[in-house]
Amino acid sequence: MDPALLRLVAVVLLGGMMGLLDGTVVAVGVETLATAFDASLSTTGWVATGYLLAVTVSVALTAWSVDRFGDRRMWLFALVLFLAGSVASGLAWNIGSLIVFRVVQGLAAGMLDPLMLALLARAAGPARAGRVMGLMGVVLSLGPALGPIVGGALIQALDWRWMFLINVPIGVVAFLGALRLVPADAPREQRPAVRLDVLGLALVGPGFAAVVLALSRTAEQATFAVWPVLVPLTAGAVLLAGYGVHALRARRTPPLIDLRLFLHPSFAASVAVMTSMGVVMFSMLFVLPLYYQRMHGHGVLMAGVLVASYGLGATLSMPVAGRVSDRVGARRLALGGAAIALVSILALTQMGARTPEAWSASAVLALGLGAGAVGAPTMGSLYRTLPAASVSQGTSALYMLNQVGGSLGVAVSALILETADEPMAGFHGAYRWVTGAVVVMLALSVLLPGPPRAPVSARTSEPEREAAA
């Protein structure tokens, strides 16, 4: 990989890491924040829930804004907005102001994460998509895994405000680097005049947000059959169904996310696999810290360190799998990775309360290795088969469904733990739930594209890309 591309990858990943870290860094600080502001845990929970909902709404708008204003402008704007939200969160004077400022952060993070994917995919081109997605996949895995460690360390050593203020030096470096390294956008006259799909935005953004809210409420209520869950879930389903009808009938204004993208078999398979990956990763990041705290008596920081073995495994396998996938395609690597993940999670289902941490951490490390071998090739295959004009829309669809998968994973895991007769039975049930998600991921991996039949250039037409995949 040439040095110029490596520098661009580094500065983009630095900016993207902020949003991914901040999604989980607050998870260990909820009780601290509740004490600091003399607020209830349910109210303080909106510090995380508001952020997640804002991310979901913002992602829906990103595809249009990129086409309208350009990658570079939107990236710089999102970095500035995230920095402003971080500073304001660190200076919050009550729980209400903190929730509002976290929503600002979430709106920016909802732009940063898919923009990171789109910027790197376009810079790499189809021929190098796998290796660049492998590097980016390290950030996608390490961000959520390191969040609890960073949050716990900052709370213990400094003050809760540093959970947010730590973003300031990182964001400034990322912004200055982006000013220098991110390529300039095409002149405005060379970009298509894309009209905003206002009706689509009003349907898909709130629709996904309502589904995510319902799933987060499930974790709080420990059941699906209550109105705080059923009302937003029903509303979300109606809004998304309405968007589906609208998107398929749209004529004058292009839909916010063109559902016809899912007619490309490789794209549909890639998104489905990454949705299953969201279920697996976020389920484990929710369940494992509780296992180490409740069964082994570890504190927040030590539990976070043990859970980080998942991110370490993915960090080791993703760059290698991504690079290899540029030559051999995604299917065989994803199948092998999913098989490793399946064996690893089955091992966890056999462990008990007295199983030494070394064994469970080793199984989690292997699970991360397997997941990394699935994630990087799958994302690379998605960007090899999409036409350049559809990259931003495809990225938004991928990210939203991955978020929904993650929310579903946490909701079901929490429901299993809350309704179990005794703690270890709950953990075994949660591991079996993840086992089912891994089996689905393994089955879907069969549908991913095999080896490319010929080199694919960045300017290859859409039919040629489909044939090459």
From TrEMBL:
What does the UniProt entry say about where the protein is found?
Cell membrane
Q: What is the protein name given in its UniProt record?
A: MDR family MFS transporter
Enumerate the PANTHER family for this protein.
BLR6921 PROTEIN (PTHR42718:SF46), MAJOR FACILITATOR SUPERFAMILY MULTIDRUG TRANSPORTER MFSC (PTHR42718)
First-listed, main subcellular location of the protein, grouped into a coarse class = membrane
Q: Which InterPro entries would you find in this protein's record?
A: EmrB-like, MFS, MFS_dom, MFS_trans_sf
- Ranges of residues in domain Major facilitator superfamily (MFS) profile: 8-454
Please name the PROSITE patterns in this protein's record. MFS (PS50850)
Positions of transmembrane segments:
43-63, 75-93, 99-120, 132-156, 162-182, 194-216, 222-245, 266-292, 298-321, 333-352, 358-376, 397-417, 429-449
**NCBIfam families from the UniProt entry:** efflux_EmrB (TIGR00711)
* Domain of life, source organism: Bacteria
What membrane topology is given? Multi-pass membrane protein
User: Which UniProt keywords are listed?
Assistant: Cell membrane, Membrane, Transmembrane, Transmembrane helix, Transport
